[in-house]
Amino acid sequence: MALNVDADTIGKQIQSTGSISLYGIEFDFGSHTLKHSSSEQLAQISAFLTQASNVSLYVVGLTDNKGAYSYNQDLSARRAAEVVKQLVNKYQIDSSRLHPVG
After folding, report:
1. What's the whole-model pTM score?
2. Could you give the domains of the chain?
3. Which of 32, 40, 89, 97 has a CA positioned 20 to 30 A from the CA of residue 47?
4. Would you say residue 3 has pLDDT above 50?
């Protein structure tokens, strides 16, 4: 999957398969703080959600496999919550449409 997928591609993929994996959202190692390089992908997600106002998403956070399972589970949940927070605060997406999952 390519980095920074545009809003139209997001919509087509979700319509086709019901989900999409996006890789343009990045964090520092061991952190839930978004890197600046994530801004473009977040803007495209926001554009898609603005166009498709009836769509709700599960935002799934991921980590690598280094460290304890419980630590990685917590980190992935914090990462998903941070993406939701950014979409709500910066892009005014209704929080009821976004469901963070670790």
Report:
1. 0.92
2. 7-101 (3.30.1330.60)
3. 32
4. yes
